[in-house]
Amino acid sequence: MPRTSRIQGLRDLSVDARRRIVAESATVDPQRIAAFAPQHGLGVELADHMIENVVGVMELPVGVATNFTVNGRDVLVPMASEEASVVAAASNSAKVARAHGGFFTSSTEPVMQAQVQIIGVRDPEAGRLRLLEARQELVELADAQDPKLVEFGGGVRDISVRVVPSRAGTYVVAHLHVDVRDAMGANAVNTMAEAVAVRAGQIAGGRTLLRILTNKADQRLSRARAVFGAEALGGESVVDDIVHAAALAEADPYRAATHNKGIMNGISAVVLATGNDTRAVEAGAHSHAISPTGHYTSMSRFEKDADGNVVGTLELPMPVGLVGGATKLHPVAQASIALLGVTTATELAEIIVAVGLAQNFGAVRALATEGIQRGHMSLHARNVALTAGASAEEVPALVARLVADRQVRADHAQRVLAEMRAGR
């Protein structure tokens, strides 16, 4: 069968049946995603090689977001998250976007930067120019550290130098701009920075201190846009309210913090599922949300187009990779990459940004219409029901009662469960 992200009734199937149909819909061998079963996932022995002082592993639910079309290709998206409604919201938003072609994405080249801090330069402006004059020497020295990266078409693309005043003095800071290809790039750029550090200090006329990458990956951007039809949303008034809700996030940092958290609900879930560095991505994204005036603002934008539809756009740094680290070591990460069917880090980054936009739209739509609690609480009620001690057979009836009572709390769940059992 052709690859498709449209799977009807997936939530009504057993977990094993979901895995089978997801593999079939993604046209991958079921054995490639067998690691999604806990018994085949990350074991203690493998975990012991990943970090220090291992005492066990912590598992998170991995769900699959459906309905995504990205640049004309259907994609099933693995998402690792403990939060109810995240997978459902992304899937629902992707379904609305499908009517207008889904998500359209683009990216810059995968350029990461490393900084070399030089202190004690008596003439910092002249020191900056001396480093720029020595550009070729420094580029060659850095590239020599990773000939394999250069062989694959990566390597240093440029060197820039800044003079940075601080309360402790004025620093000369050299930046290596490195095309890292399909790697996240931290190890590559850090190694290069350390290799050029001593020579850079000599040229600038000072002492080198820090030599490390920056997670403000503003030269490695991925973008996504989508149209969400007015008719599917409920008409012009809903479109206008969505635009108003998004505009508040642009203007008000208090709203922006929660608005952007919704974006990261989607992004971090895919980044985590694929074994990438959630902290690096989050740091880069939030730093990118600072406007040129120093104002913390919304990462996304929602506008009304000429046809009266909502157009959503999102542009963020997305430093993710397919080679090295947990992505190559963690069985679930390998299964996630197989399910996505991506072959480059750029393709993965673009899907991740599309999911962030979908997740964000779902939250803004809910806020502008029924409120966030109705949909969120319906899903959260399952967790509350299980916490209260309900069996698998009791959960559906208990969830329905909690939602109807509009009291999705553990104490109320326990009382209702006791009533249900007493009435048998």
Care to describe what's here?
- The protein is α+β, with helices and mostly antiparallel strands and 424 residues long.
- Helix content is 48%, strand content 19%.
- The protein contains 17 helices and 10 strands.
- The protein has helices at 15-25, 44-47, 86-98, 124-133, 135-143, 147-151, 186-204, 230-233, 236-251, 253-273, 278-288, 325-329, 331-340, 345-368, 372-387, 395-405, 410-422, and strands spanning 62-70, 73-80, 104-107, 111-119, 155-166, 169-179, 207-213, 221-228, 300-304, 310-317.
- It has a 4-stranded antiparallel β-sheet with strand order 3-8-10-9. A 4-stranded antiparallel β-sheet has the order 5-6-4-7.
- Helix 9 (236-251) packs across helix 14 and helix 10 runs antiparallel to helix 11.
- The two termini are 47 Å apart.
- The mean pLDDT is 95.
What assembly state would you assign to the polypeptide chains in this entry? single chain
**Total helical elements:** 17
Whole-number radius of gyration? 24 Å
Mean pLDDT across the residues is: 95
Give the tally of β-strands: 10
Q: Indicate the overall shape.
A: globular
Which spans have pLDDT < 50 for at least 5 consecutive residues? none
- Cα distance spanning the termini: 47 Å
Strand content: 15-25%
Strand order, largest beta sheet: 3-8-10-9
Q: Which percent range fits the helix content?
A: 40-55%
